[in-house]
Amino acid sequence: MHQWFIYSEFNQASAAAADFIADKITESIQKNGICQVALPGGKTPAICLGYLAEKSLPWDKVHWYLGDERCLPQGDAERNDVMLEKYFWSNLSNTHVHVIPAELGADKAAEAYRQEISSVASFDIVFLGMGEDGHTASLFPDHEALNDKRSVVPVYGSPKPPAERVSLSCGTLSNARCRVVLAAGEAKANIIRRIKEGEALPINRLGDINWYVDKAAVAEK
């Protein structure tokens, strides 16, 4: 079941999502001595991650991974790891960061990242973004990558540039212990309505999700 947490403003939803993720990190470390988290790219998570960075947590026990990456040169401003370094990782101490070598191209990068996550039985937390078409990570509607059973999948012909990407698979995301999505704005209202109706969108293939949204994103038209 999806769990919906609705706030008046996006800033409030971001802060609440940061609190939730911090609690889950603490629980995982207390139980297992480690927490393995997959993060999204894009600009939407930046405020939430800023709040999270302010928390007093044992960051040396957290390992950060990427939900997906764009096949662009290292250091390209459009890469997810560049955004995360700028807004989040640079504000933490003792970070363990596992980036996707997407500059190798989709196939080679996916193969390398499968090796990188081979010791991760299941992610403790997957923090996801969600597009207006219901895509998440780099898993797009009606795309062949949705049915790829490998843990990390190459994505070709993405409907959003760049055409080549690398993504954690539906199976890997479904296997995570906890999934979180942060969404905001009127532009997301239509797709959220379709999600609630149970439409077979990529985001609806992953199992239970904790949704942190503002009122505009769930407004009925």
Would you mind describing this structure in some detail?
By secondary structure, the protein is an alpha/beta fold. It has a single domain (3-202), classed as 3-Layer(aba) Sandwich (Rossmann fold), CATH 3.40.50. It has 6 helices and 10 strands. The strands form 2 sheets. A 7-stranded parallel β-sheet has the order 1-10-9-6-2-3-5, covered by helices on one side. A 3-stranded antiparallel β-sheet has the order 4-8-7. The mean pLDDT is 96.
**Major sheet summary line:** 7 strands, parallel
Strand order of the largest sheet: 1-10-9-6-2-3-5
Helix and strand element order: EHEHEEHEHEEEHEHE
Number of strands: 10
What number of structural domains do the residues give?
1
- The helix-and-strand class reads alpha/beta
Give the radius of gyration.
16 Å
Amino-to-carboxy terminus distance: 24 Å
Helix content: 25-40%
The CATH class, by name, is Alpha Beta
* CATH-derived topology: Rossmann fold
CATH architecture: 3-Layer(aba) Sandwich
Query: What percent of residues are in strands?
Result: 15-25%
Q: Which stretches of 5+ consecutive residues score pLDDT under 50? A: none
Mean pLDDT: 96
Inertia-based shape: globular
Please tally the helical runs, counting DSSP H or I stretches of 4 or more residues. Answer: 6
